[in-house]
Write a structure and sequence with these properties.
Elements: E1 7-10, H1 24-31, H2 37-46, H3 49-54, H4 60-67, H5 72-83, H6 90-97, E2 102-107, H7 111-120, E3 129-132, H8 133-136, H9 143-153, E4 160-164, H10 167-175, E5 179-183, E6 193-195, H11 198-205
Parallel strand pairs: 1-2, 1-4, 2-3, 4-5, 5-6
């Protein structure tokens, strides 16, 4: 354990889940005919429905229904259970560090999706807090979500190590005083600490 640190804050997509950007947009295009593509592009890019759902402005069912899915709940389950991949290194890592560090999840996500992901993959027992953008109505890399996270978990920034696959998110964490580690799934450049898997992360934090 690195002296002085008590809390390890982890991103979901690109860290715990292998798909760094998720797969939902290509998943959606695969489920609708080409004649619907212009509509979907408008809904994703101009209307920003995905962003609205991740900001808590729409529920999962409202979001998926708006996209045209007839059974939103079944769609959510299918996407999460069959199209997202849990990094095989996470659970062994969590078992090794759970008695040394408090583990916190900090994720930009639709509230219901995050709940289903952690339940489906058996992750709930590892986190003292699950902090989700849709619940807080703000998202990474906005500084507000880091400040709210620290308030909710009752820790100072100096006690926290933040692990994410996005350099922008790491810079914001550093701005509020957290130590930052890039989980480098996408070959990004970062001036600070970089790891490529959970074994390397374990070696880094001790």
């Amino acid at each position: 354990m690195i002296k002085g640190y008590t809390t390890l804050i982890l991103d979901m997509y690109g860290v715990i889940i292998e798909e760094s950007k998720g797969n939902f947009i290509p998943y959606t295009y695969a489920h609708f005919p080409e004649s619907e593509y212009n509509r979907l592009v408008r809904q994703f890019k101009q209307e920003k429905l995905f962003t609205k759902a991740g900001n808590g402005e729409m529920s999962s069912n409202e979001f998926l229904s708006e996209l045209g899915y007839k059974d939103p709940d079944a769609t959510m389950r299918d996407y999460i259970e069959n199209h997202l991949t849990l990094d095989k290194g996470f659970i062994p890592f969590a078992e090794r560090v759970k008695d040394k560090y408090e583990l916190v999840l900090l994720s930009n996500d639709v509230s219901e999706w995050s709940e289903h992901i952690t339940k489906h993959f058996g992750l709930d027992k590892y986190f003292s807090h699950k902090i989700i953008s849709a619940n807080l109505k703000c998202r990474k890399p906005e500084l507000e979500i880091y400040d709210k996270t620290l308030e909710l978990i009752g820790r100072s920034a100096a006690e926290c190590i933040f692990v994410d696959n996005s350099v922008k998110n790491l810079h914001s964490a550093e701005e509020v005083g957290m130590s930052a580690i890039l989980f480098n799934r996408d070959n990004e450049h970062f001036e600070g600490a970089v790891v490529y898997n959970f074994d390397e992360l374990l070696g880094y934090i001790g």
